[in-house]
Write a structure and sequence with these properties.
mainly alpha, Serine Threonine Protein Phosphatase 5, Tetratricopeptide repeat, 33 helices, disordered N terminus, single chain
Length: about 575
């Protein structure tokens, strides 16, 4: 049967790329269950994948290919115990599976089998050389073979590119053992390198310094790293340090927590290198399993699930952060974003409004509420939210430009062009060369037929800063059009359509520009294209379907006359068709 399934699998691999996941009734056969599982896995629907692969295994319980697929699905769900029997069978049969060894490593830690974990043969039982080295070192610490464990860190630290990461883990291990002087010596020596500048690295050093009675030095580390930036977790730490309290060592209080940190470290590295979200998720899931209170691993898992389009699973992760956790507001902001992706905007607003009551002193909560309200066309409420965010933003904080910009957009959409211009100019006073602000203000001035020379200068600067933005290039073409410089407008508009080929507004604009230079047949073609790109029921677009249809009927000149707008300047006296 295994040989038969191999043939079926090869066929299914191609079919699953084009077939939707079969319903439960369609997955009653071995091939059907496999196809359904494969299709679900390709869509990152890990719950369905695990269900279908398990159904297939019920019909062919010895199939190693199905076992690995099921193990991967359960691991992606963070269900290590369900994946463990499959992983053990795979390894027992001598199959090479990195995912299976990750699951087995977590299972051995669950059973406290640190000595056995340390004795595993890396070449045949390991995950990857760097991960294996750190796992072995921490396992030796867990097995009370402390000297051997610390020596193991030293051995692998000589690997090129690993020195800082290994020194960081050795410092954590020394903290686990209560050897805070030796741990801080590693930070002081610079051996920890870039890992010392990560948030978790900084907090580890802060806790170590506090354990040594050096709260002032710990306070300085926070100030030197984060500057004036703060959040509930940092606020609580600073308050405790200022009160003379000794911070507990929480970054790796046990060997098991150290093992969790190994998997989180590599998940973070893979994330930074923009590796596969799915592959990165596996490491984050193991970290979270080994240490359920590892909120950073939880948040990373949720973010990865969002990237994979699994917003419901992401919401489940975010919900696991308790209301008294310092990262609660981060999780709730993530949950609101995931709800928006599911088109559950009302629920997202409820989450954010509740957050304004529990964490109303955080500007990011109000700005995010403003963004969500603006997406629902509730511009007045959005303006109020942005205003609160600005009031909570410290004077001189350069991030305030974005709040002014966002409030300006809401004000512009609500018809308050004076307030909008004030906010856009306030944003430029903070960030003078920001292309989005330059473009938005410049385009607004063009539409209002005011200060066209200044508008042109702004948009030209925006294009220089962001030449691959079709929307900004469109603005430059449009200001040329408004100035009657039609031939120059054509060049820019054609470039904008190359960059934003299916945008209705850009295509509509190109049609107007073609009409202005007498290329009426091409103008009508572009208007038809623009009309085809307007989604049914879409209201948040300048490409008004009725206006486009009228242009197709009578031409742009007649539409401008009907609107009481100034006529086009003559660009080509002999260019008509």
């Amino acid at each position: 049967m295994r040989r038969i399934l191999t043939t079926v699998s090869a066929m299914a691999l191609g079919l699953a790329m084009i077939l939707p996941a079969p319903r439960g009734a369609d997955a009653s056969s071995l091939a059907g269950a496999y196809l359904a599982g494969r299709s679900a896995a390709l869509q990152h629907d890990y719950a369905k994948a695990a269900e279908y692969y398990s159904a297939a295994l019920a019909r062919d319980p010895g199939n190693l290919e199905l076992m690995e697929s099921a193990a991967l699905a359960y691991l992606a769900l963070g269900k290590i115990q369900q994946a463990l029997p499959f992983a053990r069978s795979i390894v027992r049969e001598g199959q090479d599976s990195q995912a299976a060894r990750m699951v087995i490593t977590a299972g051995m830690a669950d059973e406290g089998l640190y000595a056995a974990l340390a004795e595993r043969e890396v070449q045949t039982d390991g995950i990857s050389p760097w991960v294996d080295g750190l796992v072995r070192a921490w396992a030796l610490i867990g097995a009370d073979q402390v000297d051997a464990g610390l020596a193991a860190f030293d051995t692998i630290s000589r690997e090129s590119g690993m020195e800082g990461i290994v020194s960081y883990h050795k410092a954590l291990a020394l903290g686990t053992l209560g050897r805070y002087d030796a741990a801080q010596a590693l930070f002081d020596s610079g051996a920890v390198a870039g890992a010392a500048r990560t948030r978790r690295g900084v907090l580890a050093q802060v806790e170590i310094l506090s354990q040594l009675g050096r709260n002032e030095d710990a306070r300085n580390v926070i100030g030197n790293t984060f500057g004036g930036s703060s959040d509930p977790e940092l606020d609580a730490i600073i308050a405790a340090l200022d009160a003379g309290e000794t911070l507990p060592f929480t970054q790796a209080p046990t060997a098991r927590a150290g093992l969790a940190e190994v998997f989180y470290t590599f998940a973070a590295l893979l994330r930074a290198e923009q590796a596969s979200e799915y592959y990165t998720l596996l490491y984050a899931r193991v970290a979270r399993h080994l240490r359920p209170d590892h909120v950073d691993a939880l948040l990373l898992s949720a973010e990865l699930l969002e990237d994979l389009g699994q917003h419901t699973l992401a919401i489940e992760e975010y919900r696991a952060v308790s209301a008294d956790d310092p990262a609660y507001h981060v999780a709730e902001l993530g949950r609101a974003a995931a709800l928006r992706q599911l088109d559950k905007t009302d629920q997202a607003v409820e989450v954010l409004q509740q957050l304004t009551r529990s964490h109303g002193d955080l500007a990011v909560v109000h700005s995010t509420l403003g963004d969500t309200l603006r997406a629902r066309d509730e511009d007045e409420a959005a303006i109020a939210a942005y205003t609160t965010a600005l009031e909570l933003t410290p004077e001189g904080d350069e991030r305030a430009w974005f709040l002014h910009f966002s409030r300006g957009i809401a004000e512009s959409r609500s018809g308050d062009t004076v307030a909008a211009e004030e906010d856009f100019r306030a944003a430029l006073a903070i960030n003078p060369d920001q292309p989005q602000v330059l473009n938005y203000l410049g385009y607004s001035l063009v539409e209002e037929q005011r200060k066209l020379d200044e508008a042109l200068d702004m948009i030209e600067r925006a294009v220089a800063a962001s030449p691959q933005s079709g929307y900004i290039v469109d603005s430059l073409g449009w200001v040329y059009y408004r100035l009657g410089r039609y031939e120059e407008a054509v060049e820019q508009m054609e470039r904008a359509v190359e960059l934003e080929a299916v945008d209705p507004v850009v295509n509509d604009h190109l049609g107007d520009v073609y009409w202005a230079v007498g290329r009426e047949r091409e103008a009508r073609f572009q208007w038809k294209r623009a009309l085809s790109f307007v989604k049914y029921g879409q209201t948040d677009t300048e490409a008004e379907p009725d206006r486009i249809r009228r242009k197709l009927e009578v031409g742009l000149d007649q539409v401008l006359q009907e609107e009481g707008a100034p006529p086009l300047k003559v660009a080509n006296d002999d260019g008509g068709e």
